[in-house]
Specification:
31% of the residues lie in helices and 20% in strands. By secondary structure, the chain is α/β, with parallel strands linked by helices. The strands form 5 sheets. A 9-stranded mixed sheet has the order 4-5-17-16-11-10-7-8-9, sandwiched between helices. It has a 5-stranded antiparallel sheet with strand order 20-19-18-22-21. Strands 13-14-12-15 form a 4-stranded parallel sheet, sandwiched between helices.
Length: 505
């Protein structure tokens, strides 16, 4: 990935002129605690990327390093702050709340921090949600609890109404904890604040258990999710070994990104097949999952399969049109689907199996953070406070190349971060599992009924986009770059059969 054109500028709502109450510490005669304006972290640290920018005479893009500054914008004695958690639950939310409140109170002397109940709904008067006075006494032990003491909600709310509430409450800094939808909303709120000429800083803290936010190398909750997922894998492996032809099947979180499934599989290395949204596979045929699963049982007598919740969505007959309140496509239940397909496959071959299905997904979301995530939240929350106090806005406190940095909200709103099919993570998963490719090398295929289905090719192992199955011909198929010049045969679907094959001669 090339980052040469990324804008890393962080807006400010005013000049930081007030000496900070944060106490620096001395190393000899040098004060080392405060971050200077030239303390930055390179966005692209690869030699090839740096060489490319040198050849093209481009500046090296870099992020501001997070941490306390010697001067701040807001007067702590007069400042009011608000904090809101949005979207799905995630381990570490209470840790973030705690670190923000304690840093504001003990670090800067800010005594008025308000918790907004139930996400963005809490800003809208008609819902009638209470506002919580977040004091050190209230948050002192909340890191031992799962979920969020503020609650959460999904779905958009009127931006103008949110800004009205912030103005009425005389809020100076708004901390928004949430995923990509929340961070986009934070950007729109900041824009509306700017249009009104208000002096309100908007600081985001990225929250995604799936670790899929663009320009954020690590998100809190992910480590806890992997930790719990490995326990599920351990249980599935024990179950599989305990019975003849035992199969342990585990569905893990990861809507469109397979980081949890891939990382958990590496952590235990008891997994034989890992299915993630980024990697195309076939279920049937000589190189498909079901055939390879049968071969595994013949050789070793047991198998463990991990599937991310967003994998194999193209195998369902109907298109995904239903969405939740946040606008996310509601995924089909791939775990139950795969469980039924495995059972049917072996039943038709009169092979007895013992399949145990484990789905820990939503249990993971509501757990308290493990020690690693909890410590990480301490960095993110406190550095978010430092940024807000200096008057910075339209940014998030995020992790990049082992540093906490300031990332513009606009930069984080890019494409969803996914597992690289040719990257180190997936290649190591392939080595650990030995599963190899689960795609047919000799034909391309599409599954589904009707028009506009997803078409995949076994040659490239990637999605080619949506096509009209009723209009596809050998001629227009050959117009695709992956099939240009190749002899094509087409096997049309028959009534009641959802499988459409477009085979290479």
């Amino acid at each position: 990935m090339f980052f040469g054109n990324i804008d890393t500028t962080i807006p400010v709502i005013g000049d930081a002129k007030i000496p900070t109450p944060i106490q620096g510490w001395k190393n000899g005669d040098e004060e080392t605690n405060f971050i200077q304006s030239d303390d930055r972290v390179l966005v692209d640290v690869t030699p090839s990327g740096l060489e490319k920018m040198c050849r093209e005479n481009q500046p090296f893009p870099s992020f501001e390093m997070a941490g306390p500054r010697s001067h701040i914008f807001f007067d702590p004695s007069k400042l009011r702050c608000a904090l809101v958690t949005c979207g799905g639950l995630c381990p570490g939310l209470n840790d973030i709340i705690r670190s923000i409140v304690l840093e504001l109170y003990y670090g800067y002397g800010v005594s008025r921090t308000y918790g907004i109940k139930y996400g963005l709904q809490g800003f809208i008067p008609r819902y009638g949600h209470d506002v919580i006075d977040l004091t050190p006494d209230l948050v002192v032990d909340i890191q031992d609890m799962g979920g969020s003491i503020l609650g959460s909600s999904r779905g958009p709310q009127p931006i103008e109404d949110i800004v009205d509430t912030l103005d009425r409450m005389n809020i100076g800094i708004l901390f928004m904890v949430g995923g990509d939808g929340t961070l986009r909303a934070a950007g729109r709120i900041a824009d509306a604040i700017l249009e009104r000429g208000l002096k309100i800083s908007v600081i985001g803290i990225p929250k995604t258990i799936d670790n899929d936010i663009h320009m954020v190398s690590r998100s809190f909750g992910f480590d806890t999710a992997v930790d719990v997922a490995t326990q599920a894998i351990r249980g599935a492996h024990n179950e599989a070994e305990g019975y003849p032809n035992g199969i342990g099947l585990i569905k893990l979180m990861g809507r469109h990104s397979g980081f949890i499934a891939a990382t958990a599989a590496l952590a235990k290395q008891d997994v034989n097949f890992v299915l993630i949204p980024e990697i195309a596979i076939d279920l049937d045929g000589p190189n498909g999952l079901l055939t390879k699963l049968e071969e595994r049982l013949q050789q070793r007598g047991h198998a463990v399969v991990v599937v991310a919740e967003g994998a194999l969505q193209e195998c369902f007959d109907d298109e995904q049109t239903a969405r939740d309140a946040s606008g996310n496509v509601k995924l089909h239940d791939v775990g139950l689907f795969l469980k039924d397909r495995i059972k049917t496959y072996f039943r038709e071959r009169e092979i007895d199996i013992n399949l145990k299905y484990i789905d820990p997904s939503y249990m993971i979301r509501s757990l308290q953070a493990n020690a690693n995530d909890s410590g990480f939240c301490g960095f993110l929350g406190r550095d978010a406070v430092h940024a807000g106090m200096t008057g910075q806005t339209r940014m998030l406190s995020g992790h990049w190349t082992n540093h906490v940095v300031h990332v513009p909200l606009a930069a984080s709103s890019g494409p969803r971060k996914q597992v690289n099919p040719t990257g180190k993570l997936w290649s190591t998963v392939q080595e650990a599992t030995g599963q190899g490719s689960l795609k047919h090398p000799d034909y391309a295929w599409s599954q589904g009924r009707g028009r506009g289905q997803v078409f995949r090719t076994g040659l490239a192992g990637r999605r080619l986009g949506r096509i009209d199955l009723d209009k596809i011909t050998a001629v227009n198929l050959q117009e695709n770059q992956f099939f240009r010049g190749l002899p094509i045969t087409i096997e049309r679907h028959v009534a009641g059969n959802p499988l459409h094959r477009f085979g290479l001669q």
